[in-house]
Amino acid sequence: MTDFTKTRTMFHLPEGVIYLDGNSLGPLPKAADARVASMMTDEWGEMLITGWNKAGWFMQPNALGDRIGQLIGAAPGSVMLGDTLSIKVYQALASALEMNPARKVVLSDSGNFPSDLYMAQGLIGSLQQGHRLEVVAPEALADRLADDVAVLMLTQVDYRTGRRHDMAALTKQAQALGIIVMWDLAHSAGAFGVDLAGSNAEFATGCTYKYLNGGPGAPAFIYVRPDIQDTVRPALSGWLGHDAPFDFERNYRPGTGMMRMRVGTPPVIQMAALEAALDIWDEVDMAALRAKSVELCEVFIAEVERQCPDVHLASPRQADQRGSQVSFTFAHGYAVVQALIARGIIGDFRAPNVMRFGFTPLYIGAEEVRVAASVLAETVNTKAYEKPEYNQRGAVT
Ligand SMILES: Cc1ncc(COP(=O)(O)O)c(C=O)c1O
Question: pLDDT tens for residues 148-188?
Fold first, then answer.
């Protein structure tokens, strides 16, 4: 079991704020302050370049990758940390396409995050081998799986609606047709327990700044199924993925296993913050987390629908088809979210009309969810969102 009152005390949450945006950027783990400070003064400050060996910076992407692996059902040695998620998507897709050279279709769905699709378009443009990206509705995926598809590239949980794909079933169906499968777990890792190894997918990627609470700009991760690690060719052949980086050879030779998925110098300061965030996860039972997450989502849906008939549920009604977020559509959604933020209730908005709310049992409880639902209803019912200041768009929504 997990003591969520204890995990809550491990985060800094500003006074008066109900934070329902941990699906976008997790809050600050209190221990991260001291961990980063000690990395700066004791490690960087005192050890200087010797920190790569003495403080273990060099192998930290592997060590933290293994800790993330525990949360997503991946064996030790199959998850590597580094770079941004967009880069890791590119890296996984490039390797995946090479495993299926005779096929030219990358299949994805309209619930995928734009950056994943953009990276696929960029890679296809560079390859100049006649590949094409095909994007279908999530419900149309199963029917589109066929033997012309090289790679099925999906994000498990839709960033707008929270709709969750059945990872195991789709992977199985795709692999039966010879399709390589890669999953983006950005909205899954830390949202619920994932059985990545059990799904048999070849590749997965994800980020650490959402539910895992690693902080803005925290590094991403990539997973490669253990049996293919030594055969995949790394497209981003940086020196830290080389078999012997400090031999400074003229030509690239990939390192063994996940070492080849490293690219360049890892972000050591950022990894210190992530390390503190992952310490909290040591306290968490994923089944208990999921049960609490479902409870919070259900309370929110029921309370909003009871008090506010003008907004419409954009997330699946059935809990087993959702991640850990709930979205409602409303024509003035942007302004409503701004009005909520002004009252300390932080969710976010995704164009054209989606109000998103993330539910994170580590630091959010049912009472706060009830308050948030009531304030949302009041904001919509009284048209409080009409104030001009709530209708001015910022660069980040
Ligand atoms: C599913 C998904 N893929 C890719 C990205 C882009 O990640 P990054 O900005 O870290 O490259 C995001 C960011 O939110 C995302 O949610």
Answer: 999 999 999 999 999 999 999 999 999 999 999 999 999 99
Distance from the Cα of residue 22 to its chain's centroid:
11
Report H helices in 10-84: 30-38, 46-47, 51-54, 60-72
Does the Cβ of 116 fall within 6 Å of ligand 1?
yes
- In angstroms, the CA 273 to CA 24 distance is 17
Which residues, 6 or more positions from 263, have their beta carbon under 8 angstroms from its beta carbon? 82, 83, 87, 91, 236, 238, 240, 241
Which residue's CA is minimally distant from atom 16 of ligand 1? 186
84 C-beta closer than 6 A to ligand 1: yes
Identify the CA nearest to 21 among candidates 348, 340, 292, 338: 348
Peptide bond just before 352 cis, omega within 30 deg: yes
210 flagged as catalytic: yes
Alpha-carbon span 397 to 394, nearest angstrom = 6
Query: Is pLDDT above 90 for 27?
Result: yes
Using the mean position of ligand 1's atoms as its centre, give its distance from the Cα of residue 207 in Å.
7
- Per DSSP, 95 falls in state H
User: Is the distance from CB of 20 to CB of 346 less than 8 angstroms?
Assistant: yes
Q: Whose CA is nearest to atom 7 of ligand 1?
A: 85
Residue corresponding to tokens 């199963």: 142
Per-residue pLDDT reduced to its tens digit, 325-383: 999 999 999 999 999 999 999 999 999 999 999 999 999 999 999 999 999 999 999 99
Residue 187: which of 310, 44, 359, 328 has the closest Cα?
Answer: 359
Interatomic CA distance for residues 137 and 88, integer angstroms: 24
Query: Which member of 103, 210, 260, 322 is catalytic?
Result: 210
357 - beta bridge partners? 326
Whole-number Å distance between alpha carbons of 180 and 95: 10
Q: What confidence tier does 134 reach under pLDDT thresholds 50, 70, 90?
A: very high
Cis peptide, bond prior to residue 114, ω within 30 of zero: no
Exposure string of 229-242, with b = 16+ CB inside 10 Å and e = fewer, is: beebebbbebebbb
As a whole number, the mean pLDDT across the chain is: 97
Mutate which of 113, 183, 212, 221 for ligand 1 pocket (most atoms within 8 A of beta carbon): 113
Q: What is the pLDDT of residues 98-119, one digit of tens each?
A: 999 999 999 999 999 999 999 9
Segment 255-283, tens digit of pLDDT = 999 999 999 999 999 999 999 999 999 98
